[in-house]
Design goal:
InterPro entries: DUF7053
CATH superfamily: START domain
Protein name: DUF7053 domain-containing protein
Number of helices: 3
CATH architecture: 2-Layer Sandwich
Order of helices and strands: EHHEEEEEEH
Number of strands: 7
Mean pLDDT: 92
Largest sheet: 7 strands, antiparallel
Pfam families: DUF7053
Strand order of the largest sheet: 1-7-6-5-4-3-2
Low-confidence stretches: none
Helix content: 25-40%
Number of domains: 1
Distance between the termini: 34 Å
């Protein structure tokens, strides 16, 4: 199940500034996880590709999952692997800066109900996350 979220870059904000924000893993984690409880570095290199163990608050309670962020020349790839009681949920995102926009292509894999719920959550929350990230990039 795929979805795309795109946000125009604010006037005066350079693609380089947005790329710098995308490559800042600490900023990405804090932006992607608005109800962040904690996160720890697990493996890799924060300058290129690293895996983190993230604990986040959700409406259903606290959840812990693996998040891998891989810096790319035109953005960052994100990979969430969560193991809720109903099965494994994988959310793969490609965040790119192109044509004056921040574009996130998201692929969601899991059982039917989890995919449907996750897609709705992405479409609801990620535009706000884009806005926060772009705001940080311009700071």
């Amino acid at each position: 199940m795929c979805t795309t979220v795109s946000t125009p870059l604010p006037a005066g904000l350079s693609a380089e500034a947005v790329l710098s924000a995308l490559h800042n893993h600490d900023l990405m984690i804090k932006t992607l996880c608005p109800a962040l409880v904690s996160y720890t570095f697990e493996s890799g290199n924060a300058q290129t590709s690293a895996t983190y163990c993230v604990t986040d608050k959700k409406p259903s309670g606290q959840t812990t999952y693996k998040l891998t962020l891989t810096n790319r020349a035109t953005g960052v790839d994100s990979l969430v692997i969560a193991r809720p009681p109903v099965g494994v949920l994988t959310i793969s995102g490609k965040w790119r800066v192109r044509d004056g926009q921040l574009i996130e292509d998201v692929d969601i894999d899991g059982n039917y109900m989890m995919k449907k719920m996750a897609k709705g959550n992405v479409e609801k929350t990620h535009p706000e996350q884009h806005g926060k990230l772009l705001q940080q990039a311009s700071a």
